[in-house]
Amino acid sequence: MPLLVTDYCWTQTESTVHISVPLKGAKVGKVDILSTDEYLKVHFPPYLFEAFLFEPVDDVRSTAKVGNGVAVISLPKRTNKVWDHLMITTNDKEKKKEVRERALLKYQEKLSLESTSKAEKEHTEKKYALETMMKHEQEERDRIQKIKDTEREKTTAELAAWRLRQKEELKVQSPRDSPNQMTAKQEPGCSDGGKVKLDQRGNREAKSKIKQVDLPAPRLVGNIQVSFTPRVFPTALRESRVPEEEEWLKKQAEARRAVYADVEELEDLKEEERNPDWLKDKGDKCFAAGDYLGAVNAYNLAIRLNRKIPALYSNRAACHLRLRNLHKAIEDSSQALDLLTPPVAANAAARIRAQVRRGSAFCQLQLYAEGLQDYQAALKMDPSNKALQADVQRIRDMIQGWILQVRLHYLGERSDLTCYNQGFDLHT
């Protein structure tokens, strides 16, 4: 049950009533004020102040100010006169309950009306913005259509002028009197029909000569000899892996051409952003700058464009290692190793990186045996790598420590090998 506030104070003029309610240390955000024309409530748990007003007030123009530990409410009177009391003097609980319920109902209606008017205002503003945007778009379309019409008329006029010039040039180039026509006129005894036939034949021959003159000369035919420099492998012939090298090069060439153009994001991408190599460089830059999430996003889109490039999976595995997404790092490293086949000298460095990244993820998951296998495979490809040698030795020590700890546990002895439970950094 709330505690009623009795130490309030109030003053009045003929037109306004001012009520000051102490907040007793309550915060401003926890003060709830409800005001109608005949009821006032100020609630700040656990305190409550309510007033059943002596006369009706104008709740539309009522104001409240909360601050400095006090709430000051100003209530404009509907009739300009001095009140005898602030509240009604009756002690009828039923009447007060009725006034309270009526005030709450009015307040809810007021809130509903304000919400409806706010929604209508937002709808009107959105409608106006949409109409304005549609108007601007229509004006832009009309402007573009006007430009098109102007260009079409201009092109049509230029085409008509060009055709007219062509006709005039043909008229100038065609001979007025052909030799056949002169011969027909000089021959005696020829009828008029013969002259017409000779004239028509002469015109056809003249036109055919003009067309033959206008035709360009035929192009010359020739062959271009293309030779390629043979690829020389440095491996000795007895240890040669030329077929595997050729298969690897073929797979690399096919991977560069295997671009999946049905990706939905291509519609919104620029031309350079549709290039997996460009996206890989962008991911590398993000990784170098410490933006691992940005690098993952770049590699994701590059993989959607081309799923045959192993470097994309290997680099994304490195990002997942930094983000502690260890299972994803294992998946990407395994996918990169599947693509890095057949194992040849050209992809040895890439296979070492993928093996080390997968081994590091296994070790961070405390799967040291699996991690040791990957590190040993990497060390087998690069036996002189000091960092790999140190990591392999550390993993072996870690496995031996776990074995010793388990033995001590089963023997019932106390183990102080807490260092083996802690994480460690490997060269990734």
Describe the structure.
The two termini are 66 Å apart. About 7% of the residues have low confidence. Helices cover 56% and strands 10% of the residues. The protein has eleven helices and eight strands. The longest helix is centred in the N-terminal third of the chain and has 81 residues. A hairpin with a 3-residue loop joins β2 and β3. α5 packs parallel to α7. A four-stranded mixed sheet has the order 1-6-5-4, with helices on one face. It is α+β, with helices and mostly antiparallel strands and 428 residues long.
What summary fits the major beta sheet? 4 strands, mixed
- Beta percentage is 5-15%
| Largest beta sheet: strand ordering | 1-6-5-4
**SSE pattern:** EEEEEEEEHHHHHHHHHHH
Which residues form runs of ≥5 with pLDDT under 50? 181-196, 413-424
Subcellular location: Cell projection, Neuron projection; Dynein axonemal particle; Nucleus
Region (Disordered): 169-208
Protein name: Dynein axonemal assembly factor 4
Biased composition (Polar residues): 175-184
Show the helix and strand layout.
Layout: E1 3-4, E2 9-12, E3 16-22, E4 32-35, E5 39-44, E6 47-52, E7 63-67, E8 70-76, H1 93-173, H2 179-186, H3 192-214, H4 242-257, H5 276-288, H6 292-305, H7 310-322, H8 326-339, H9 348-364, H10 368-381, H11 386-411
Parallel strand pairs: 1-6
Antiparallel strand pairs: 2-3, 3-8, 4-5, 5-6, 7-8
Features:
428 residues, four-stranded antiparallel sheet, CS_DYX1C1, repeat, single chain, alpha+beta, nucleus, 56% helix, four-stranded mixed sheet
Q: What can be said about this structure in brief?
A:
The chain is an alpha+beta fold and 428 residues long. It has helices at 93-173, 179-186, 192-214, 242-257, 276-288, 292-305, 310-322, 326-339, 348-364, 368-381, 386-411; strands at residues 3-4, 9-12, 16-22, 32-35, 39-44, 47-52, 63-67, 70-76. Helices cover 56% and strands 10% of the residues.
